[in-house]
Amino acid sequence: MAKEENKNKLIAGVLGGMGPLATVDFMSMVTEFCPIEKEEDHVRLVVDQNPHIPSRQIMTPEISTKIASTLSESAVNLENIGANFLVMPCNTAHKFYDLISDAIEIPFLHIVDETVSEISNYFSDKKTVGILATTACLRSEIYQAGLKKNDKDFILPDKENQEECMRIIFSIKDEGDLTGLSQSMEKVAESLIKNGADIIIAGCTEIPLVLKQEDLSVPVISSTKILAIRTIEQANIINIARDYK
Known about the structure:
By secondary structure, the protein is an alpha/beta fold. Helix 2 (20-32) links the parallel strand 1 and strand 2. The protein is globular. The protein has helices spanning 2-6, 20-32, 61-81, 97-103, 111-122, 135-140, 142-149, 159-175, 181-194, 223-236; strands spanning 12-16, 45-49, 85-87, 128-132, 153-155, 199-202, 220-222. The protein contains ten helices and seven strands. It has two domains: 12-110 and 226-236, Rossmann fold (3-Layer(aba) Sandwich), CATH 3.40.50; 111-223, Rossmann fold.
């Protein structure tokens, strides 16, 4: 019977490694939030954990071409292995979403679109979104564009707080030591709340490692968690009830 049930489940391909801890956190959430009665109910993941993709923060034409080609090659490999759809737990890399999508024939969940949709569907009363993300992600304006389409205002960190946000993100990426980073990220988020944000997007998959809902007085929307939940829903063809307070 279990084998028959598994035939109806889809395999998720994961473009990972950007960074490694964030990808592991995503995989952990896919396990944590998956409703199960037995082991076989979990989602099957095929993961390319590739930390050798060039930095998404310095996007010269040459580097951008290298990033796009590397991610597209990985996507094709995951499709050939048997993935039925793809996810990529890195917000900034979604600058290359269209190029990657053009290289494959399977669906590709968009972390930014899914996160913005979550806010529109479950937090319609929230009007001003504070965005925590890498500088390159903010420059690409993928979150800003999505929020505008959904009639949401947004606030970005000032220069000093954005620099602190980047310091924290790259401490996680490069050092893997989370000691003392939660308090620092909380201060950056609080600066957005002080300026009028009534909901916060953790729009970099390193951020949920050091910023939790209990740290702030307003809702914190983890792009990692949203992508994990949507991965489960897509793979197991189910709907997962949200537990927002």
